[in-house]
UniProtKB/TrEMBL annotation:
Stated role: Translation factor necessary for the incorporation of selenocysteine into proteins. It probably replaces EF-Tu for the insertion of selenocysteine directed by the UGA codon. SelB binds GTP and GDP.
Keyword DNA repair: no
Residue span(s) of domain Tr-type G: 5-175
GO CC annotations on file: cytosol
Single GO BP term: selenocysteine incorporation
Compartments it resides in: Cytoplasm
A GO molecular-function descriptor: RNA binding
Principal place of residence: cytoplasm
The keyword Amino-acid biosynthesis belongs to this UniProt entry's keyword annotation: no
SUPFAM superfamilies cross-referenced by the UniProt entry: EF-Tu/eEF-1alpha/eIF2-gamma C-terminal domain, P-loop containing nucleoside triphosphate hydrolases, Translation proteins, Winged helix' DNA-binding domain
UniProt protein name: Selenocysteine-specific elongation factor
Gene of this entry: selB
Length: 643
């Protein structure tokens, strides 16, 4: 990205035929009316774009249509603005779309801008003064109250230099949204260029991207690769926040990508059909926002039908606010704090707006006080509160730093520090989930999971009284709502460290548990061990042992597992157990045979152990499994394990 200065996005706003496009042309030298119909009719139908250099600062200028019929295009262009230029024609004064555009800019949360009075060459000074007074009255109580009002005439050049000076001052003083640090761009156009393929354009909302990078195309979730970049019609190696960008991507056809889709850093955004939002009904709304009402929602460059579920009351009257959920007809991507606008389609009217509180939501109930409290905490100015609330909604599902950036509105570079603070305070607990890997889970959920693991172990022990321990896989199956076996393993490690369970690589048992055998079962267990021990390397198979047990055959697998857990037998395969000492001896003999780089065939193993192929094959597979040997085609070499 170019060094020095700031990259900001300026959007025009105002009524049809008030001279927005002509003013942009006078400022930048660019005619933003690109469609033939726009030039023929003299009105802007879709979005137009230009750029303006102001010293070291650079403005990406978005020219929006003023006609009410094209308000959806205006909203698509207004979604990523830093600054606004409200345009009012001196010969026409404030008109309906002037008011609605200003209202939309308010709902989108803009904080900086100015007013340009256009066509001042067509009105006398006294009339222009009256129009200025009307504009001041219009903007009172809005973000434009006290903003400069500059008189201009695009045809004569009147006021253009003064307007540039005011814009330069505005760039220097403007407060812009913090950059999350991850690339994101809402698509406003997609087309194909011969010899290059798919090109998508948009305004970069955050982060930066370089040629060769991979991005995710959302809401589809597919990975695409950046083949080329243009910034304000010039080829560049990278683009960043506040830039108008054209991105040549590989991996998607241009007809698949449409306005409302997004390109984003991998792992940053996830599509959802439910959003929890903080709503504000417009001050001049003709009708209230109603519970279970159907509306059009404008978010980024997307426009989608939605049903509104209010979480506080049954209606939001003009000027009031409250929490709600939007159930969307199709999935979108959003981040915490992202603004949106709600419109009624018939009769068309802007009724309100708001900000996304929870980008990945599920249906909430008004009486669910815990969830309502989490939503309120997600509105906190304290990033630790927001992070804790976002993690609470996720439950035991871990979130990456990139996901937390989107879910809690925390810049990616600050996420590790926030998590460290929560861990130091005890709100988060580090749970091991593998060698040198941990995940952080809210303490309340870890305590609950520990209790659930202990209760599940108790149930399994009761169902398998002859077992000394429970296979970890069986324990995981007892907790089917937990998708992460690694997380369960981490909790087992915590319980083991406190002495509440006994855990091995494949099994776990509650503290104090011991197998419960009848006198007859204890006797049969010793008989089984004696038979295995007497067989040496070629003992009876499990089926033979069961046949010998007669009416007691059903308990043989449990008793063999118990011998294994007591380290009196080794499970070679599900059908073959060896005496523990016999297994240790065969491992020693195999190791000695293979030392010095020698190899061993199956026939060599059979002869070394003085057994048959029936036993040599499962023993060879066992040796591979424990890492003592490594199979290479038809031969085995010494492996890395110390078994």
């Amino acid at each position: 990205m170019e060094s020095g200065g700031r990259n900001l996005v300026l959007g025009t706003a105002g009524h049809i035929d008030h001279g927005k496009t002509a003013l942009v042309r006078a400022l930048t030298g660019v005619d933003t009316d690109r469609l033939p119909a726009e030039r023929q009719r003299g009105i802007t139908i879709d979005l137009g774009f230009a750029s303006l250099e102001l010293g070291e600062d650079r403005l990406a200028v978005v020219d929006v249509p003023g006609h009410e019929r094209f308000i959806r295009n205006m909203l698509a262009g207004a979604s990523g603005l830093d600054l606004a230029m409200l345009v009012v024609a001196a010969d026409d004064s404030v008109m309906p779309q002037t008011r609605e555009h200003l209202e939309i800019l308010e709902l989108l949360g803009l904080s900086g801008g100015l007013v340009a009075l256009t066509k001042c060459d067509l009105a006398d000074a006294s009339w222009t003064g009256l129009v200025e007074d009307e504009v001041r009255e219009l903007v009172r109580g809005t973000f434009l109250e006290g903003a400069p009002i500059v008189r201009t005439a695009a045809t004569t050049g009147l006021g253009i230099d003064a307007l540039k000076a005011e814009l330069a001052a505005l760039c220097g003083s403007a407060t812009i949204r913090p950059d999350p640090g991850l690339f994101r761009m809402a698509v406003d156009r997609s087309f194909t260029v011969a010899g290059h393929g798919t090109v998508v354009t948009g305004t970069v909302a955050s982060g930066e991207v370089a040629v060769g990078d991979e991005l995710e195309w959302q809401p589809e979730g597919r990975v695409v690769r950046v083949r080329g970049l243009h910034r304000h019609d010039r080829p560049v190696d990278r683009v960043g926040r506040g830039s108008r960008a054209a991105i040549n991507v590989a991996g998607v056809h241009h007809e698949e990508v449409r306005r409302g889709h997004e390109l984003a850093a991998p792992g940053y955004l996830r599509a959802s059909k439910v959003l929890s939002v903080q709503l504000s009904a417009a001050e001049d709304a003709a009708r209230p926002l109603r519970h279970r009402g159907r509306y059009r929602v404008h978010l980024g460059t997307a426009e989608v039908s939605a049903t509104l579920a209010l979480l506080e009351g049954n209606a939001l009257a003009a000027g009031s606010g409250g929490l709600g959920q939007l159930f969307l007809a199709e999935p979108v991507v959003a981040v915490h704090g992202q603004p949106l606008v709600i419109r009624e389609e018939s009769p068309p009217a802007t009724l309100g707006g708001g900000r996304v509180v929870q980008p990945l939501a599920r249906r909430l109930r008004r009486r669910d006080e815990a969830s309502m409290d989490r939503l309120r905490r997600l509105r906190s100015a304290d990033p630790k509160e927001r992070a804790a609330a976002a993690l609470a909604f996720l439950g035991l599902n871990p979130a990456s730093d990139r996901e937390l950036c989107a879910l809690a509105g925390i810049p990616i570079g600050e996420v590790p520090g926030v998590l460290d603070e929560l861990t130091r305070s005890g709100a988060l607990v580090e749970v091991p989930i593998g060698p040198r890997r941990t995940t952080r889970v809210l303490a309340e959920f870890v305590a609950d999971l520990e209790d659930r693991v202990l209760r599940a172990l108790s149930r399994l022990h009761a169902a398998r009284p002859r077992h000394s321990a429970i296979p970890r896989a069986h324990l995981a199956a007892e907790l089917p709502d937990l998708s992460s076996e690694a997380l369960i393993a981490g909790v087992i490690d915590r319980l083991k460290a406190r002495g509440e369970v006994l855990a091995e690589a494949r099994t776990v048992a509650a503290k104090g548990h011991s197998p419960k055998l009848s006198q007859g079962e204890r006797k049969l267990k010793e008989e089984l061990h004696a038979a295995i021990r007497a067989g040496g390397i070629s003992p009876p198979e499990v089926s033979d042992l069961a046949a010998t047990a007669g009416s007691r055959a059903a308990v043989v697998p449990d008793l063999l597992a118990l011998l294994r857990d007591e380290q009196r037998a080794v499970e070679i395969s599900p059908s073959l157990f060896l005496d523990f000492d016999a297994a240790a001896d065969l491992r020693r003999r195999v190791r000695e045979h293979l030392e010095g780089g020698r190899t061993m065939t199956m026939a060599d193993l059979r002869d070394l152990l003085s057994t048959t192929r029936k036993y040599a094959v499962p023993i060879g597979e066992y040796l591979d499994r424990i890492g003592l040997t490594r199979r290479e085609g038809d031969v085995r070499r010494l492996g890395d394990a110390e078994a």
